[in-house]
Amino acid sequence: GAGVSQSPRYKVAKRGQDVALRCDPISGHVSLFWYQQALGQGPEFLTYFQNEAQLDKSGLPSDRFFAERPEGSVSTLKIQRTQQEDSAVYLCASSLPASDEQFFGPGTRLTVL
Amino acid sequence: QKEVEQDPGPLSVPEGAIVSLNCTYSNSAFQYFMWYRQYSRKGPELLMYTYSSGNKEDGRFTAQVDKSSKYISLFIRDSQPSDSATYLCAMTRTGGFKTIFGAGTRLFVKA
């Protein structure tokens, strides 16, 4: 595809459910980022991958959050036992090596009831 | 205190006005400064990217960085209704990949 794609675009979960959010980066982009964007706020860094290696996960809010990119392409962000405070838009971005320009996907809007 | 402060607005201007958007930051390690535009229900898109202090111009957009004051600005000339969006400042450290974003300023340009 031409850009970063994310699925699903919208997800409603009951509190306590597990969810999995998918990101398909631009082909050839080795760097992949996940961000959480609360309503009316800027994106907050969650984690960063270079190929399949997760180099920084310091932004993950709790051990209920887990991200993987096993083959260095598609990435999945998993949230276990969702809580209401997890409601946000989850953005994925990818970039070329040695480039600071990140290309963002449209995001997944997660609502936890 | 947040590392990056940005007035959330909203900012409402008439078409053709010059718009000034600003951010302040506290960490002197930030070296790369960016402005993103985000339309409703879309991901952010990069508008301007600058390194260190100085000005950079691209069409109707000018980005300005003053590292001594820890202050960055984005100017939009001849604003258009299509410029109505949220503008996010962002910055990273040298050798770093963790980008810190401001809260975003909502801009409305009235026709």
Ordered list of secondary-structure elements with their pairings:
The complex is a heterodimer of chains A (113) and B (111).
Chain A: E1 5-7, E2 10-13, E3 19-24, E4 31-37, E5 44-50, E6 53-56, E7 65-68, E8 75-79, E9 88-95, E10 103-104, E11 108-112
Parallel strand pairs in A: 2-11
Antiparallel strand pairs in A: 1-3, 3-8, 4-5, 4-9, 5-6, 7-8, 9-10, 9-11
Chain B: E1 4-6, E2 11-14, E3 19-25, E4 30-38, E5 45-51, E6 54-58, E7 61-66, E8 71-76, E9 85-93, E10 100-101, E11 105-110
Parallel strand pairs in B: 2-11
Antiparallel strand pairs in B: 1-3, 3-8, 4-5, 4-9, 6-7, 7-8, 9-10, 9-11
Provide an overview of this structure.
The complex is a heterodimer of chains A (113) and B (111). Chain A is built from no helices and 11 strands. With 113 residues, chain A is mainly beta. In chain A, a hairpin with a 6-residue loop joins strand 4 and strand 5. Chain A starts with a strand and ends with a strand. Chain B contains no helices and 11 strands. Helix content of chain B is 0%, strand content 58%. Chain A binds chain B through residues 4, 31, 33, 35, 40-45, 48, 55-56, 58-59, 91, 93, 100-107, 109, and chain B through 4, 6, 8, 32, 34, 41-46, 49, 88, 90, 92, 97-104.
Write a concise keyword list for the protein shown above.
heterodimer; A: 113 residues; mainly beta; four-stranded antiparallel β-sheet; 11 strands; 0% helix; globular; B: 111 residues; 58% strand
Low-pLDDT windows of residues of chain A: none
Note the main sheet of chain A.
Answer: 7 strands, mixed
Radius of gyration of chain A: 13 Å
Order of helices and strands of chain A: EEEEEEEEEEE
